[in-house]
Design goal:
Number of domains: 1
Distance between the termini: 6 Å
Strand content: 15-25%
CATH class: Alpha Beta
Bound molecules: D-xylitol-5-phosphate, zinc ion
Radius of gyration: 16 Å
Shape: globular
CATH topology: TIM Barrel
Helix content: 25-40%
Largest sheet: 8 strands, parallel
Oligomer: single chain
CATH architecture: Alpha-Beta Barrel
Low-confidence stretches: none
Strand order of the largest sheet: 1-8-7-6-5-4-3-2
Order of helices and strands: EHEHEHEHEEHEHEHH
Length: about 210
C-alpha cells in the first residue's frame, strides 16, 4: 500500500521540519490540500506556501485542489513542481479538457469524487486517468469520520478500472486510521491519504510504516 501523508494536519508553524520528517520517512508522496472557501467551507493555503515547500520536498507532490475552476491553475500547479494534479469532478464542467491539459503540462492526471458522486460518472474518462481520488469524508476538514459506503465504492471503481483496461490507481482520502485502513486495503485501494493519523501520532514515521505494511 502506498501512503500520501496530508500536510493539512501538520503544524504550519514548523512546516519545513515536517516536510524534512516526511523526506526521511517511507511515504510515497506528499498530499497537499488547497481550499478556496468556495468549493469547500474552509481555506487552507495556496501557491506561496507550495512554492516554499516544493524545493525541500523530496517526495512527489500530490496536489488536491478543492477549488472552483481548477483547470485555470494547471500551469501554476505544474510550475511549483507538482507531480499529480487532482481536480474534483464536481468542479469541472469540461472535465475531459481539464484532464488533457493536466497531462499536456506533464503531470499525472487525477479526478476526485465527493462522497455523493457515483463512480459511473468516470466511465468515459477512466482510460485517460493516472489516479482516481475517492473522498471518504466530505472535503474541507481533517479529522472527520470515514464514510463506510466508500468501501463499496472502491469495489465499483476497481471493477470499472478492470473492465476499461485503465491503469488508474485508487487513492482514498479522509478518516484513514488503524481501524479503517485495513478495510480500505481489503476493498482494493492502492494509496492512502492520511492527515491526522500520521501527524497526531507519537511517531509519525512509524504510523506511515504501519499503513504501508497493509
Ligand atoms: C480533507 C482533505 C484531506 C484531509 C484528510 O478535505 O482532503 O486530505 O487532510 O484528513 P484526515 O486524514 O485527518 O481525515
Ligand atoms: Zn486531500
Amino acid at each position: 500500500m502506498k501512503v500520501s501523508p496530508s500536510i493539512l494536519a501538520a503544524d504550519f508553524a514548523r512546516l519545513g521540519a515536517d516536510i524534512v520528517m516526511l523526506n526521511s520517512s517511507n511515504a510515497d508522496m506528499i498530499h497537499v490540500d488547497i481550499m478556496d472557501g468556495v468549493f469547500v467551507p474552509n481555506i487552507s493555503f495556496g501557491f506561496p506556501v507550495l512554492k516554499s515547500i516544493s524545493p525541500i520536498a523530496e517526495k512527489p507532490l500530490d496536489v488536491h485542489l478543492m477549488i472552483v475552476e481548477p483547470q485555470r491553475w494547471v500551469s501554476r500547479v505544474r510550475d511549483i513542481g507538482a507531480s499529480i494534479m487532482n481536480v474534483h469532478q464536481e468542479a469541472c464542467t469540461h472535465l475531459h479538457r481539464a484532464i488533457q491539459e493536466i497531462k499536456a503540462a506533464g503531470m499525472k492526471a487525477a479526478v476526485t469524487l465527493n462522497p455523493s458522486t457515483p463512480v459511473s460518472t468516470l466511465e468515459d474518462v477512466i482510460a485517460d486517468l493516472d489516479m482516481v481520488l475517492l473522498m471518504s469524508v466530505n472535503p474541507g476538514f481533517g479529522g472527520q469520520k470515514f464514510i463506510e459506503n466508500t468501501l463499496a465504492k472502491i469495489r465499483r471503481l476497481r471493477n470499472l478500472i478492470e473492465i476499461s483496461g485503465s491503469r488508474a490507481e485508487i487513492e482514498i482520502d479522509g478518516g484513514v486510521n488503524a481501524v479503517t485502513a485495513p478495510l480500505i486495503a481489503e476493498a482494493g485501494a492502492d494509496i492512502l491519504v492520511a492527515g491526522s493519523y500520521v501527524f497526531n501520532a507519537p511517531d509519525p514515521i512509524a504510523a506511515i510504516d504501519s499503513l504501508r505494511a497493509l
